[in-house]
Amino acid sequence: LAKTTQPISMDSYEGQEVNITCSHNNIATNDYITWYQQFPSQGPRFIIQGYKTKVTNEVASLFIPADRKSSTLSLPRVSLSDTAVYYCLVDAPRGGFQKLVFGTGTRLLVSP
Amino acid sequence: EAGVTQFPSHSVIEKGQTVTLRCDPISGHDNLYWYRRVMGKEIKFLLHFVKESKQDESGMPNNRFLAERTGGTYSTLKVQPAELEDSGVYFCASSDTQGGVGVNTEAFFGQGTRLTVV
Q1: How far off is chain B from A10, nearest CA to CA, in Å?
Q2: Are the beta carbons of B111 and A101 separated by less than 8 Å?
Q3: I want to staple A44 with a disulfide (CB 3.0 to 4.6 A). Which of A38, A74, A79, A85 is the partner?
Q4: Residuewise pLDDT in 10s, chain A (112 residues)
């Protein structure tokens, strides 16, 4: 499984755009990049997933360069409720099996 | 539709006692996983069920932990006897089954059971 490296923490103000970059230099051809969000006292929650280029949903955007050795989660106009830990995970799907490997994640603090 | 539910939300037991955690996955999800986070550590995979069969239990720490999923519906994780180092948050997750390489599947997590062994 490819190892991921991401910032330990980030601070932002409400209304700003937040970009969290994750490095995964050893990503394999079949690996997908997935981001999860975790609030205190809750389980992780899927945010977005991608293989290459750009993926956008109602919550975030995921930018993946051509070499796929890194990815950037972009949260537009964050609010206080976006304060959470964000995990970048890399793994190859196997019939739906998800042996997710969580790193330390990035702790995002959004202030007024 | 109900999400993944776990019971209890918090359990405090004495060292040496037995505790059983329960997870109800999303209805229809064949894949069920157990993860845990011990204090100050990262979330770690424990095991994976496909229906009632254990597919991967490589993350189970030792034989004091027993997971079951009778009938392929809910699952239980029993710790017997509990030790101090078992304290942490135990998460259950489930996902649907989709076939083939290149098809990934979102895992839905429960809120976790906080286990405190004193």
Answers
A1: 18
A2: no
A3: A38
A4: 568 999 999 999 999 999 999 999 999 998 899 999 999 989 999 999 999 999 999 999 999 999 999 999 999 999 999 999 999 999 876 655 667 889 889 999 999 9
For residue B2, the model assigns a pLDDT of 81
| Residue B97 confidence (pLDDT) above 80 | no
* Residue A36 to residue A30: CA distance in whole angstroms: 19
Our CA-based measurement puts residue B19 at a distance from the nearest CA of chain A, in whole angstroms, of: 20
Q: Which among B56, B93, B98 has the least Cβ separation from residue A95?
A: B98
Is the omega angle on the peptide bond into residue A76 within 30 degrees of 0, that is, cis?
no
pLDDT of residue B70: 86
Put simply, the answer to whether A30 touches B44 (Cβ < 8 Å) is no
Of A45, A51, A93, which is closest to B105 when you measure between CB atoms? A93
* Chain A residues with CB-CB distance to B109 below 8 A: 42-45
State residue A1's pLDDT score: 58
Sequential DSSP letters for B27-93: TT--EEEEEEEETTS--EEEEEEETTEEEE-TT--STTEEEE-GGGS-EEEEESS--GGG-EEEEEE
Q: Give the pLDDT of residue B19.
A: 97
Task: Compute, in degrees rounded to 10, the torsion defined by CA atoms A25, A17, A36, A68.
Answer: -20
Cα A87 to Cα A17, A65, A71, A82: the distances in Å are 18, 19, 12, 13
